[in-house]
């Protein structure tokens, strides 16, 4: 008997620790929230493996299950938002490596999680005010469904609005329309209520056609480069970049292309102040239209710009929408102080007053530089063709270019645009 009591007294502290841990995780860690966040993020990661029938099938199924889980599984929406924020945007802090601020990356990741967690928590608290049912449907869940379709368009912390549920469908058998998303949301409620109509709703969503788009009557060469970000702006490395750029242009001429498109900042310098390079590009523009990214110095102000060289004429289109915290500080206070302390003045770019539109052989194109290619207002402009330039090396390796592509595809389908995207750090592509 004494021996048994001795064993029990030895195990008691261990049992207390185990019980405390179980109590903590039960109270503060909801595995259903984690599962929902994983499902809600899986299409992004699966899309990084490319586009084929099998992947589209898996992504289609996961997207339906993710929406059902988000709306019908009892969970902590703070934790769901926390994990979604991290799974979708953990890469945001990677650019800080190039400002000698690597130590901030885990802080930024944690901040993103907490930020989105608090947003989801606040929305859920508001919706839970309506604690009643209509036709056996919880009003709070119906409101979440409506928010899933429309509300995320207005969710823009620090002007950053890349959290779009339609993106889940961009690489699936479904077309990433609001209508499609609405039908899937409605089918989730029907399935929860055990009503057979959910299958019909999914079938209707499945047959909504993708837009029929035609390419312009131009042979366009999209250049892909893989210049590491830590080398891109080194004075010793810039001559190699310039040499490579002219090789890309001359190869395009030999291959009889009408247009050659180089990525954002392909010339990592103030191109308009370099008369020798400008003249060389102007001369080549008699053989081919050249579109390239470079910096632009105007009235002692810095611009991130697109240069268009055609028939010895030059058009410079300055960026209209800057990257929050990368090219400007989206805060109403301490902008200069934050810029100097954390970014050494690198965020001090100026902007054009509007999006740029230019013509190639009388065909109109919309100009988009990196972040601008994911801005919905740009797609509302009249020209149906967009030429986008990006430097995604800032965030490699990560899912950032995949998420960017899915957002571009979502907007391109919605507004019936063809997008030509030339990239540094990721394979260039056409969305049509």
What does this structure look like?
Belongs to the CN hydrolase family. Apolipoprotein N-acyltransferase subfamily. This is Apolipoprotein N-acyltransferase. Residues 223-432 form the CN hydrolase domain. It comes from Caminibacter pacificus. This protein is of the alpha/beta class and 432 residues long. It has two domains: 26-207, no CATH class; 220-431, Carbon-nitrogen hydrolase (Nitrilase/N-carbamoyl-D-aminoacid amidohydrolase), CATH 3.60.110. Helices cover 46% and strands 16% of the residues. It has 14 helices and 13 strands. Strands 3, 4, 5, 6, 7 and 8 form a six-stranded mixed β-sheet that branches. A hairpin with a 2-residue loop joins strand 9 and strand 10. Helix 3 (53-72) crosses helix 7, helix 6 (139-149) packs antiparallel against helix 7 and helix 7 runs antiparallel to helix 8 (197-207).
In brief, what are we looking at here?
With 432 residues, the chain is an alpha/beta fold. It is built from 14 helices and 13 strands.
Largest sheet report: 6 strands, mixed
| Assigned CATH superfamily of the largest domain | Carbon-nitrogen hydrolase
| Average predicted local confidence, pLDDT | 90
How many β-strand runs? 13
- Radius of gyration, in angstroms, nearest whole number: 25 Å
Helix content: 40-55%
Q: Which topology of the largest domain does CATH recognise?
A: Nitrilase/N-carbamoyl-D-aminoacid amidohydrolase
Supply the number of structural domains.
2
């Amino acid at each position: 008997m004494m021996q048994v009591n001795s064993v029990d007294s030895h195990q008691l502290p261990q049992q207390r620790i185990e019980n405390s841990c179980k109590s903590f995780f039960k109270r503060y860690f909801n595995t259903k929230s984690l599962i929902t966040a994983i499902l809600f993020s899986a299409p992004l990661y699966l899309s990084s493996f490319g586009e084929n029938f099998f992947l589209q099938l898996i992504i289609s199924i996961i997207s339906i299950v993710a929406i059902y889980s988000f709306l019908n599984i009892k969970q902590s929406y703070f934790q769901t938002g926390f994990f979604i924020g991290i799974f979708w945007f953990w890469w945001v802090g990677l650019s800080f490596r190039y400002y000698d601020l690597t130590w901030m990356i885990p802080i930024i990741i944690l901040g993103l999680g907490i930020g989105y967690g608090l947003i989801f928590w606040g929305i859920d608290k508001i919706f839970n005010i309506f604690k009643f049912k209509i036709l056996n449907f919880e009003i709070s869940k119906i409101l979440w469904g409506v928010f899933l379709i429309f509300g995320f368009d207005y969710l823009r912390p620090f002007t950053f609005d890349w959290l779009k549920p339609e993106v889940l469908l961009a690489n699936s058998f479904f077309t990433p329309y609001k209508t499609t998303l609405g039908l899937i949301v409605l089918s989730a409620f029907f399935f929860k209520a055990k009503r057979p109509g959910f299958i019909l709703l999914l079938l209707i969503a499945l047959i909504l056609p993708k837009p029929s788009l035609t390419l312009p009557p131009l042979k366009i060469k999209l250049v892909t480069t893989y210049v590491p970000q830590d080398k891109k702006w080194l004075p010793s490395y810039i001559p190699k970049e310039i040499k490579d750029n002219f090789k890309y242009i001359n190869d395009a001429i030999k291959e009889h292309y009408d247009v050659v498109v180089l990525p954002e900042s392909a010339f990592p310098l103030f191109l308009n102040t370099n008369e020798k390079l400008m003249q060389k590009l102007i001369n080549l523009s008699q053989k081919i239209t050249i579109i390239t990214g470079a910096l632009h110095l105007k009235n002692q102000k810095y611009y991130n710009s697109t240069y268009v060289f055609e028939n010895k004429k030059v058009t410079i289109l300055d960026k209209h929408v800057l990257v929050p915290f990368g090219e400007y500080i989206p805060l109403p206070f301490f902008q200069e102080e934050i810029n100097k302390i954390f970014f050494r003045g690198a965020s001090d770019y100026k902007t054009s007053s509007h999006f740029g539109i230019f013509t190639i052989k009388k065909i109109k194109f919309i100009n988009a530089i990196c972040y601008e290619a994911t801005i919905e207002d740009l797609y509302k402009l009249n020209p149906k063709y967009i030429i986008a330039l990006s430097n995604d090396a800032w965030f490699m390796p990560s899912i950032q270019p995949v998420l960017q592509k899915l957002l571009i595809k979502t907007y391109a389908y919605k507004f019936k645009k063809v997008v030509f995207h030339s990239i540094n750090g990721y394979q260039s592509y056409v969305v049509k």
